[in-house]
Prior knowledge:
- The structure is a single chain.
- This protein is mainly beta.
- The protein is built from six helices and 42 strands.
- It has a 22-stranded antiparallel β-barrel. A five-stranded mixed beta sheet has the order 10-15-16-13-14. The chain has a four-stranded antiparallel beta sheet with strand order 3-2-5-6, with no helix packed on it.
- A hairpin with a 3-residue loop joins strand 27 and strand 28.
- The longest helix has 16 residues.
- The radius of gyration is 27 Å and the shape is globular.
- About 2% of the residues have low confidence.
Amino acid sequence: MRPARLLFVVLIASLAAHAADLNIKVVDPRSAVVAGAQITLYSANSAQPLRFLNSSAEGTAVFGLEPGEYRVEVLAPGFAPYKVAVRVPQQSSVEVQLTVAGPEQTVVVTATRTPVPAEESGAAVISLDQRTLENMQPVAASDAIRFLPGAVVNTAGQRGGLASQFVRGGDSTYNKVIVDGVTINEPGGTFDFGTLPLTETDRLEFLRGAQSTLYGSDAMTSVVQMWTRTGSTRIPELRFGADGGTFGTANGYAALAGARGIFDYNLFGDQFNTSGQGVNDAYSNSLQGANVGAAINKQVSLRIRFRHSNSFTGLPGEWNFNGAVPVPPNPPDPSEWKQLNTLLGSAELTVTGPSGWQHRFTGFDYNYRYQDVNLTGDMARIDDFPTQARDHINRAGFEYQGDYSERSWAHTTFGYRFEDENGVVGDLYYQTSTNGFRLNNDAYAQQQIVWGRVSAIAGARFVHDNKFGDVGVPRVALTFLALRGGQVFSGTRFRFSYATGFKEPRLEETFAGPPFSTPNPGLKPERTRAFEAGVQQNLLANRYSLTATYFNNLFHDRIDYLTNPNNNFIGKYINIDESFAQGAEVGFQGRLWSRLSLGSGYTYTSTQILAAPVCTPENFCDPTIFGPGRPLLRRPKHSGTVLLTYLGKSWGGDVAGSFVGPRPDSDFLNLGIYHAAGYALVNTGGWLNVNRYMTAYVNVENVLNRRYNEVVGYPGLKANFRAGMRFRIGGE
Length: 732
C-alpha cells in the first residue's frame, strides 16, 4: 500500500474512533415528544458546559462527541429537571422521560427568560399546562387566570365584556401580556383578558411581582405569558371539535399539526358565538393562527408565528346592581357595540453555540384595531351618550437575547430591544383624534448564580424613549435553602426580592389634543418600588408545597387629569398621584395522587391613596372615593382560589373556585353605590375518551347559580354549560 493511501486510511480510522453521535430524545410521562427542551452537556467532572441544544419538534437533539463520560441536564418548562450520566460510545442514544413535579420544582421560563426550577427563580410564578387548559375549556384567558393564586379578574358582565386584572394592589394597566414572545398590550398597559382566546395554547405562565428589568414597560405587578403548541408527530395530526350550550352558545375549532424532516407546523382556527343571557349580550370571536418551524441545522432554527383575532361584543352597559333598581332606572342599552381586531406576527431565529452560548433574534409586529360605536345614544339611560371611538395602534420592532452558561451554577442573560409604537386614538363623533409616535431602545442584563443552598439573581434594564427620556430599573432576588429536611418536612426555603418597575403613558395621555386635552410631551412613566419576602415549606418528599409571601408596593408618579377652568376646562395629564399596597399571599400546591393535583391560594391586600392633589370637585373628582386615605377601587382585601384537577388516561375533570370579598367600587352615575358585594364563582368540567379518536366533554360555569357583579352594575352569567366532542385523526 502506498504511504499516502495508508495515511488516509489511518486518518479515517482515527476519526471514526474519536467521533460518535449521542442522540437524546425527550418525552413526557405519556411518551409524547417534548419540543424546545433545553439540553446541556457537561464532561463528567466539569461544571463548564460543553454544548447547549434545544430539542427539535420531534423531541431530539444530536451531539457529536469523542469517547468519554458525560452528564446531560434537561430543563423543559412544565416538568421537573432531569439529569443523567452517559458513556460514549457505549451509549449512542438516550431517551429522557420527564416527570411532573410539584409547582415549586417545575421548570418555568417567565421568571428569568430562561428555563429554571420555580423554587430557584426568586419569583412567585405558577403555570397551566396544555392538558389542564384542555380540562378547563376556557373561552378566553380571563376564564383561566381568575383561578390562579393572586389574580383578581373583574369582567364587565357578559362574555366579551371588558375583563381587567388586578394583582397585588396594582392598576389594571400594570400587567404585561405576552403571546409567543410578542407584547400585546396597548402602549401604556391597557389590555382586555376577556377577548384573548386560548385555543391551541401549550402553556400559560402567571408571574406576580415587578419584572420591568426583564420585560420593560407595564410589568409593574405581573406578567402573563402564553405559548402556542408545536407540531411534533411525523404523521400529520388533525384535531377538531365542536360544542354548544346555554344562551345560544356554539363553538367550533380545528388544528392540523405535524413534523417532518426539518419542518414542523401547527395551523389552527376557532369560531365562538353566543347570544348571551340578556339584551345586547351577544359575543363572537374568530381566531386563525399558525406556528411553523424549521431546523436549519443542529445549531440553527427558525420559527414563524401568526395569529389573527376578530371579536364583536354587544354592550348593554351597567344596569343591574345585584338586584337593586337605581333611581332613575337604567335599562340595558340595545344598540352599543364594540369590535376588536388584532394581528400578530413574529419571526424568531435561534442560534446555539458551543460552551453554553445561545442567541435569539426576534422580529415582531402587532396591529390593534378597536372601535366602540353608539350612534344615537339612549335617552332612557343615565349614562348613554353617542360615541364612535376608533383606535388603530401598531407595535413593531426587533429584539436580541443572548444567553451564556458559564458554569452549571452560573447563567448570564442580556439583550437589546427596539420598538416603534404609533397609533391614532379618537372619537369620530366629537371629531377628535390623537396621533402618537414613540421609539423605545432597551438594553438589559441579568446574572443568575446557584451556589450550594443560595440562589441569587441580579439584573437591570435601561430604557431610552424619544418622548419621556431615560428610565433605569434594577432588580435583585435571593433564595436560601435553610433546611434540607427529610421525608415529612422536605425543605425550607426563604425568598426575598427588591425591584423597581415602570409603565409608559398611554398614547392619549401624552399626545391628546383639543377639544378635551392639551398634549404633555414631558409626561413621565408611572413607577413602582416593590419588595417581597417569603418562605416555602415542602412536605412529604416534595409532593406538597406551602408558601407564604409578604409584598409591599409603592406606586408613584401616577398619572391623573387636571382641568383648567380658565381654558374652557381643557386640561392635560400630569404625574402627581401616589398610592400604596401591601399584603400577604398564602398558597398550597401539591399532588394528592399521581394524577390528582390541587392548587389553592389566599391573598390579603390593603391599599391606600397617599396623594391625589387634583382630586377636587372643581376637577370633577369625588375626594370621598378617589381622595387621600381612600382605598383603591376594585381591590378586595380578601380573595382566594382553588383548582382541583384530575388527569387520567381515559377520563379527567376539574373543580375551580374563585372567592372574592367585598371591595370598593363606584357606579359613576351618582346613584350612591360605592361597594361591590363579595361572591363565590365555582366552575367544573370533565371529559371521557370514547375511543382513541373521540373524546366527549362538558363544562359547567357558576354551578352554584349565584347572582354576582364583578364590576358594579354588570351582572355575571347565571349557571350555564357547554358540551361537545373533539376528534383526533392521524398523529402517533
